[in-house]
Amino acid sequence: MSESVERHRSAAPEGVRVAVLTISDTRTPETDTGGDTAQEILERAGHEVVARHIVKDEPSSIRTALVDLLSRKEVDAVITTGGTGISGRDTTYEVAERLLHKRLDGFGEIFRTLSYQEVGSAAILSRAIAGTVGSKFVACLPGSRNAVRLAAEKLLAPELSHVVFELRKHEKGR
Description:
The protein is α/β, with parallel strands linked by helices. About 50% of the residues lie in helices and about 20% in strands. A six-stranded mixed sheet has the order 2-1-3-6-5-4, sandwiched between helices. Belongs to the MoaB/Mog family.
């Protein structure tokens, strides 16, 4: 690992305040295994889940929930689960993509590479995306527990503090 990345990681906050937003027409708080998985892995990594919601896979509902969560001072990042596939009801990608100021294309690329190692060519069906909205980070994951586990363990838990550090650094004009 480069010296610069190590230096930034060591200066990053130990934990990030995260909102988990599940997008589903069928999930309930009792059946939201993707949201449960995200919360468990992120908290185990030292992050704090400060909000957790479920909304229907309707563009206006997703946008309203995302904008609300991103406007909260206590939220540094929003992680969504669900709605990133290719069915007609999957609209998370379209909503999030329009909100993002800067896309982190590597997130989706690496996620699909890791997914390919687990599920083979079905990985191309994922439209996982991440980026920034102002000084906040957004990552949109598929809804399956395995996909959330993969993204949370391999990408989000190790890098979330570094991402937020970079966003705060630029927000302060350094």
